[in-house]
Amino acid sequence: MESNFNLKVFSDTIIVSISVKPQFYAYLLLILVTSLLILPFFLINLNNESFTFELFLELFIYLILIELFPLKYCFWNVFGKETLLFTKKSLSYKHVYGLISSNMKVVPHKNISVIFYNILIEKNKKFGKINFLEENDETGLIELIHKTSILISEENYECFILEFDKLFLLETFSLN
User: Fold this and answer.
1) Which end of the chain is more exposed for a tag (fewer CB within 10 A), N or C?
2) What residues make up the domain containing 160?
3) Which residues cross the membrane (predicted)?
4) Count of structural domains, the chain
């Protein structure tokens, strides 16, 4: 279970880019699933002599419900990439599914905590997700703000947490 982990640090911003690193069989599986989902679409068109509006609606619904949703997750397993942009005041994240990309979501925070949630141990290496937590002002309970989608190694988490600590350490001891 490997992932590509890229960490960039600017003065008050940390950018983390995590992408999946699939095996060769994942590409073959993507081609197989894509062809199996698109094949019925062409078979329906070949069997009908007249192309009506009702047939168009049926094919459109089939395309959206049956094909695009599973294909989105197939593309995620092969081309998935998650980008986190972390500042002292907000956490922004975005998911990229190959050709499809989600909007950047921004979550403001006041006092954020970061923990490593261990999910998998493979060849004596721990893999998990980064959880971003914050205390709710009204209830006093800890809430999950965001959890990364792609597993990272504990070593990558340690690199991130060092930069995360530096970001807030510089703020605390600033002379301004």
Assistant:
1) C
2) 1-176
3) 24-44, 59-79
4) 1
